[in-house]
Write a structure and sequence with these properties.
alpha+beta, Cystine Knot Cytokines, subunit B, disulfide bond, Noggin, 8 strands
């Protein structure tokens, strides 16, 4: 049994019986909440990788084709924090207008009253409604710490500064994710007898948001038992 297989078996056993502690635990296990909750790391620097363990050439080779410069960075990236006021005036909506908005009947009120509206006014109103209810994914850089490589990840978030529906009541929620593979510095054992190495771990990132009042339970199966092994 290889080292990674042993870790997986130990993780499954610990999930059901509490065995293999205090060496590792899974976080989250699982969860439909994204972005991923911040990891509580062991504060002892003995569990940190040493300088010789952070050789970029070696780690790039180990990560291989999983290295994605669009979502991960070795050095500190430039952080740009955007608010809803910054985003919506510049928003370029992707693809064609959704059918549920495009086919909206504006010639009659919910109470049966007929309304006359010109083509230009209808087009402008539907464009406004599309922009108002659209839920973009806002990406910000997050520092995962020294025990991840690369240590910086570009994490997706759904804007929730205001309701996305008219009338109000619905909010932007994650509906899809992509998974990126990072390296995690993992230690097993205690102090001088411990064994540490880099292992691959998967990290889910929000890739699509939708205006909804529902909780998308299907995220559980999409994200699974991700991501992180942490020392207790």
């Amino acid at each position: 049994m290889g080292f990674s297989q042993a870790i997986l078996v130990c993780a499954l056993v610990s999930f059901h019986s509490g065995a293999c502690q205090p060496y590792l635990r899974l976080r989250p296990s699982p969860s439909d909440k994204l972005p991923v909750i911040d990891i509580i790391e062991h504060p002892d620097p003995e569990y940190d990788p040493r300088e010789q363990d952070l050789n970029e050439r070696t780690l790039r080779k180990k990560l291989g084709s999983n290295f994605d410069p669009n979502f991960m960075s070795i050095s500190t990236p430039v952080q740009v924090n955007l608010s809803i006021q910054d985003i919506h005036p510049k928003l370029r909506l992707p693809g064609p207008m959704p059918n549920d908005i495009k086919k909206l009947d504006l010639s009659e009120t919910p109470y049966g009253m007929r309304v006359k509206i010109g083509k230009k006014a209808r087009r402008k109103f539907l464009q406004w409604l599309w922009t108002y209810t659209h839920c973009p994914v806002v990406y910000t850089w997050k520092d995962l710490g020294l025990r991840f490589w690369p240590r910086y990840i570009k994490e997706g978030n759904c804007l929730n500064e205001r309701s996305c529906s008219f009338p109000e009541g619905m909010f932007c929620k994650p509906v899809k994710s992509v998974t990126k593979t990072f390296l995690r510095w993992y230690c097993q054992g205690f102090l001088r007898q411990k064994y540490c190495t880099w292992i691959p771990v998967q990290y889910p990132i929000i890739s699509e948001c939708k205006c909804s009042k529902k909780k998308y339970k299907r995220l559980d199966s999409a994200f699974g038992y991700s991501v992180v092994i942490v020392e207790k």
